[in-house]
Each structure stands twice: as C-alpha cells, then as structure tokens.
Write a structure and sequence with these properties.
The chain has 2 helices and 2 strands; from the N terminus they run ααββ. By secondary structure, it is mainly alpha-helical. The protein has a domain of 50 residues. The radius of gyration is 30 Å and the shape is rod-shaped. The mean pLDDT is 80.
C-alpha cells in the first residue's frame, strides 16, 4: 500500500486505481484470514464427530424417563431386569 501511495504522489497511478488496488488487497487478505480461521473450526467439528461416533458405537441406547431422557447401558446377557 505504501508503494501504491508513492505511485499516486509521483503521478504514475491514479487515485481511483489506488482505491481499486487497496480494495482488491483487502478482499484477498480477508479471504486468507477466513481460510486460516476455518482450520480450528474444522478440527473442533472433527473431534465432535468422533465423539458422536464413539457414543453411537458404545452399545448404549437412549431411553426416555418421565423427566426427559437419559442414556442407559444395555442389559447384561443372562440376567433379567425389570423397569418400572
């Protein structure tokens, strides 16, 4: 940007061209920053998906109660459990 300002003062670039250059520069910089900020978000989302996958494959099932819902362990084979 400093070089662009120098070119405007010397007369080698118009002020409109300088504004267009600065606008394009900030759009590129903002896009790069957005991409860099997406990396931690993607890592967090990956960790959440791994946790959900582990929960789904743990063998627990969702049961409902009067107050809402809770996770319960599957019954042990060979034993009978009564729920009220």
């Amino acid at each position: 940007m400093i070089i662009g300002a120098y070119f405007v003062f010397v007369g080698r670039m118009s002020f409109g061209s300088f504004l267009a250059f600065v606008n394009s520069l900030w759009r590129a910089v903002t896009g790069i920053f957005d991409l860099v900020h997406m990396i931690p978000q993607a890592r967090r989302n990956t960790a959440v998906l791994k946790r959900i996958g582990a929960l789904r494959s743990s063998g627990r099932r969702r049961t409902t109660t009067r107050d809402g819902w809770c996770w319960s362990k599957p019954p042990v084979s060979g034993t009978a459990t009564a729920r009220t």
